[in-house]
Amino acid sequence: MQPTLKCVEALEYFKQEFGVHIEVTKMWRAMKEAKQLVEGNERKQYAKVFDYAHELLRSNPRSTVKINTVPSPEGPPQFQRLYICLAGCKKGFVAGCRPFIGLDGCFLKSAFGGNLLSAVGLDGNNHIYVIAYAVVDIENKDNWKWFLTLLHEDLGDYIQNGWNFMSDMQKGLIPALQEVMPGAPHRFCVLHLWKNFTKQWKSKELKGIVWQCAKSTTVAEFEGHMAHLKTINCQAWEYLNKWPKQAWTKAHFSTTPKVDNICNNTCEVFNSRILQYRCKAIITMLEEIRSYIMRTMAARKVKLSGKPGPLCPVQYKRLEKEFHFANQWTPIWCGDNMGLRYEVHMWGNKVEVNLGEWTCTCGVWQLTGMPCRHAIATITHKGGKPEDMCHEWLSIEAYNKTYQHFIEPVQGPQYWAQTQYTHPVPPHKKVQRGRPKKNRRRSVDEDNVTGHKLKRKLAEFTCGRCGQTNHNIRSCKNIGVPVRPKKYVAPSTSNEDDHLLSQDEQALNEAEEAAAHVQQDPVEINLSQPHLSQDSDMEVPATIVPPIARNKLAITRAKKRKVADKDDAEN
User: Fold this and answer.
1) Percent with pLDDT over 70 in the chain
2) CA distance 114 to 477
3) Gap between the Cα atoms of 8 and 24, Å rounded
4) Which sign, positive or negative, has the C-alpha torsion 193, 197, 198, 204?
5) How far apart (Å, rounded) are the C-alpha atoms in residues 434 and 427?
6) Rounded distance, CA 164 to CA 231, Å?
7) For residue 489, what are the contacts with CB-CB under 8 A and spacing of at least 6?
8) Is the pLDDT of residue 565 over 80?
9) In the prediction, which pLDDT does 553 show?
10) Residues 6+ apart with CB under 8 A from 284
11) Given a cut of 70, is residue 453 above it in pLDDT?
12) Bridge partners, residue 469, by sequence
C-alpha cells in the first residue's frame, strides 16, 4: 500500500507494467474509491462519532470525551465540536510534568475542514506531552472558551496548581483564557511577536533588539535594551512597550513552572508530527493521533528506564554547558552564620548567590530550576554537587512518574457498541475557488523550500576587481575597472648574502617599512584620462596602482636591478 501515490505515478505504473492506457479522470475516481476503502468515507464517519466516544470511555475509564451538535428541525443534528482528554495523559501530566501548558490551533485539510485545538506540556526531559485535543468547526472565542473550561475541569484549579500558559495570538484565545482562568500567567510566543514587528521595521539592528529584550533575565538588562531601542526608533519602542512585559520577556516571567521558553515550540512540534493525519477522515484522524500518543508514551517509558543520576539526560547537557562558564567566576563568602550567601566575581561583575533560597541575581536559577554558572561556582566551592540542587521536576523520578501512566488499547470499529444517539451530519464548509491548498502558508521572512531541503545561504563576499559585494571576479560585469593589486610580499634573503647588502639596499628596506605605514588616501577613479608609465610606453589608467603599491613596485624593481648587477659582477 502506498498512501502517497499520485495519480500521474499510477498512470505511469499501469502503462509500464501492463501496457494499459487509462484516462486521467477514471484513474482519479478509482484512487478516490481506494482511499475511501482504506481510510473510510469522510461523510459516513461523522455518523459514528458517538460510537467512537463510547468506545474511548469504555476502554479508557475516567477519560473525558465531549461532543456538541447543532440541532436541526428539518433533519439530523449537525456536528459542531469534539473534545478528548484521555485518562493516561491527564494523570501523567499532573503526576510529573511542570505546570506549563502550550495552546495552539491548526487547520484540518479534509473535505469538511475544521480546526484542531491542542494543549501540550513538557516532561522532565523537555519532551512534548500531549494533554488534550479537540476538533471544532471554526477557531473563535466561543470554541476556545469551551475547550479551556473542559481542560480546567480535567486538570484542577489553576491557582492551586499554578498553571502557566503560552500561545500565539490565536483568534479569541486571549479573552477566552481571561474569562475562564482570570489572572493565570499567560506568555506570548516571541517568534509570532517578532514576525509582526518585522512587517513594519525591516532593520536588522531592530530585529536583533527584540530578541535581546525577550532573552533578558534581569529587569535592569531588559530596561537597558528597551532604552537603546527608544534612542534608535521611538515608534518601535512604543509598539513593544504596549505589550504586557510578563508575557514576552524572561525578566518578568513567572518563576513557578521552571520553564524559560519564549517560543511556543511544544505545540509547533505536535502539529508537525500529526501533519500527515490532518487530511484524513475525522475518526481515522483521531485514531491516528491517539495511536501516536500511545506509541510515544510507551517508547519514552522504556527509553530512560534504568538511567542513573538524579537528572534527565537533556538537563545534564544543559548543566554541562554552564559548568564551562562557571570556572571563570570566583565566589567569596560574605560571613553569614549559615554559610549560604556568597558574592561571586568576574572582571568587575558581581552577583549575589543565596544557596538557602536557591536564588541568584541573574535570575536564571529561579526561572529554570537549574543552578546558573554563578551558583555552580559557589556550590563546587563548598564541595557540593550542582545536580543535587536542581528542581524535582527536572529529575528522573519525576520523568518516571509521568510515564507510569499509559493509554489503554482500543478495539476496531467492527467491535464498537451501537449507541442510541441520532447520527450527526458533517458541518457545512464554504468551498473556495481553485484547488485546495495543503502546504502551510509561509510568512514573508521565510524562504520557499523546494523538496525537503532549505536553500543554502552564503556569507557576504566581495569582488576582487571592483570591490562590490555578492559576486566574484569571474561574474563581475565591471570589465573596465582594473583588478585590485594583491598585497605585496617581500622576497626572503638568504643568510649567505647578508654581507653583500649595501647601504643602498638597507635604505630601500627602510623605505619599504615606511611605505607600509603610510595611510592610503581615497583616489578618484577616472578611466577616461590615461597617461604613460615611467617604465613602459603602454598607456594605463592613472589610478591603476595606488600610492602604497607604487612604492612597493619601485622597491621591487630596484632590488631586481641590484641582483642583476651582482650577477654581472660575479661573471
Assistant:
1) 81
2) 54
3) 8
4) negative
5) 21
6) 34
7) none
8) no
9) 62
10) 39, 40, 45, 277
11) no
12) 462
